[in-house]
Amino acid sequence: MGSDRGPGAVVAGLVLSAAQLPDAKFLLHGDSAIVAPLLARHPELGSRVTLRHAPRVVTMQDKPSQVMRHGEGTSMWSCIDAVKNGEAAVAVSCGNTGALMAVSMIRLRKLPGVNRPAIACLWPSRNPGGFNVMLDVGADIKAEAADLLQYAAMGASYARNGLKLDRPRVGLLNVGTEEHKGRAELKDANDQLALAAEAGGYEYIGFVEGGDLPSDRVDVIVTDGFTGNIALKTAEGTAKLISDFMREAFNAGILSKFAALLALNSLKRLQRRMDPRRVNGGIFLGLNGTVIKSHGSADETGVAAAIALAYQLSSAGFLARLAARVASTVRAGQDAVVDSGADRAEAKSSE
Amino acid sequence: MGSDRGPGAVVAGLVLSAAQLPDAKFLLHGDSAIVAPLLARHPELGSRVTLRHAPRVVTMQDKPSQVMRHGEGTSMWSCIDAVKNGEAAVAVSCGNTGALMAVSMIRLRKLPGVNRPAIACLWPSRNPGGFNVMLDVGADIKAEAADLLQYAAMGASYARNGLKLDRPRVGLLNVGTEEHKGRAELKDANDQLALAAEAGGYEYIGFVEGGDLPSDRVDVIVTDGFTGNIALKTAEGTAKLISDFMREAFNAGILSKFAALLALNSLKRLQRRMDPRRVNGGIFLGLNGTVIKSHGSADETGVAAAIALAYQLSSAGFLARLAARVASTVRAGQDAVVDSGADRAEAKSSE
């Protein structure tokens, strides 16, 4: 109800998904006066979609703190509660990101052992699968070393189950790759991520830089939510600038226009590779339930992509795997901290 | 001597610059056994270039702390000392960035009132001039509110003298544009930048996001060196990824190749707009001297662009203007802090 394109785009996405995923069933949350007529136009959805009436809507302008306190009766709240009650395996929403995180936090609560949940996104890359994972891209504005370790465990689990990578390579975002670089919490995190790699089921490759985000030497990039959010929006802004410049270049003169026409297939192929709709779906990690945040402006293709991701993760038993992996990684990280503390004490006493 | 392409590219850049800037004179620092023969091939440089022999070289692998302590006799040290001694108006180097900053700090010292010097870069944008200014992109890994205020004053002064903007619009990089967003030091900085705008000679537009970096609603973007460095490298990485994908797209099949041939002019125009050589020259701000850091891999065009910037800034009397502006802005910022402290105390007592 609260997306930029309204419930029409969501129902159109459902139609695509229903055809692609023959054994999926859907709970749709919204104002039945508006949504029921939209559903009625698609008799092929039949009994596969159950409409849950929710009289209220969270808008893009609503403050997360307000929605957290007074959000009952909204379609967003109803959707998250379906996961909480075990009726749904995954929640998908195109609504207000901050509000969705707030409602998810209060209704689903954090996974045992998780201090700060994170939002992970897929990042177009040179890897064979076409994407890397980056987190946190904006759930929280800061992260201590222990949080970054949890992000590594969660991001690696997501890459295994979402991108089907056996042993994802994890890197920690920094301003240089040398070990002495960066803030104090990054040096601590660097040690902990290395020591917990076995338990986390990932290969730790150390620090990576902004230029490595789309590279094929890393699969999962770990950073705090402030830096991650700036990097994500900077990359989107850069891609938009280049695509505008490219359009202007191809519109400058008859010859260019003719060339663009000839190059149409190539340009389309390029567009497809960079298409944000194909990577639609930030995912909230670290809660007792899986929540996928689709772009607010997602069209039917974008909505269907988010649903496909939801389906894949629930089929893989993602949540249980993630929870187990976080528990063992955090334990390994704590052991590492205790060990290196002991090492330091020993080193000191032998001085 | 320490650039990726060696002294040949620098001499070739000098040849271009000497033709473009008929009243400029040059001090060239390096091993005369290597550099003198290169100069001898260009008699047209004649008396305009003076060679200063420096037997040692700072390499890209040298640690800044080592160079700071033991860098005497290197061409980098000699170059900075020429500015320190008043023989040169501006220093230009293609060498090791960290070492250049370290040597600049120790030889030139910080401007009165400046706590942390910053590196500013030009950012391709939709503005009429084609560029925005961003700082800090990596001189320091953190910045307090007072540092961000100094960056605003320095960045605005650079935009006035380097980009010829009368009253640059300054924005503060954050994860959202609402006033309540972001870290504590950003909220403080937001207040201080607004209150010191008059003294700093800029218009303060508040928080901006990563997507605004190339936009035409801002001229100077202020951030800490950690975030700025990640954003810069993320943007470079994204541009590189898109250009690689584009090349692949245009190489896929005969028709595409033919189209690319027809579109050659358009593609060249696009490339020119995004060409990093045109924006060559990060600048160190906040020292008793102007230092321009050219890309390590700069070719003759890049070197000439950095020299052209150096020439423009020195003709504009940039350093004296910058120093005056920093002094008055810092004073205004301090007044603002004192005032708002008093306001708060008043508000409290009247509660």
TrEMBL record, chains A, B:
One of its GO terms (molecular function) is phosphate:acyl-[acyl carrier protein] acyltransferase activity. Signal peptide: none annotated. It catalyses: a fatty acyl-[ACP] + phosphate = an acyl phosphate + holo-[ACP]. One of its GO terms (cellular component) is cytoplasm. Pathway: Lipid metabolism; phospholipid metabolism. One of its GO terms (biological process) is fatty acid biosynthetic process. Keywords: Acyltransferase, Cytoplasm, Lipid biosynthesis, Lipid metabolism, Phospholipid biosynthesis, Phospholipid metabolism, Transferase. Its EC number is 2.3.1.274. It is found in: Cytoplasm. Belongs to the PlsX family. Catalyzes the reversible formation of acyl-phosphate (acyl-PO(4)) from acyl-[acyl-carrier-protein] (acyl-ACP). This enzyme utilizes acyl-ACP as fatty acyl donor, but not acyl-CoA. Homodimer. Probably interacts with PlsY. This is Phosphate acyltransferase. The lineage of its organism: Bacteria, Pseudomonadati, Pseudomonadota, Alphaproteobacteria, Rhodobacterales. The gene is plsX.
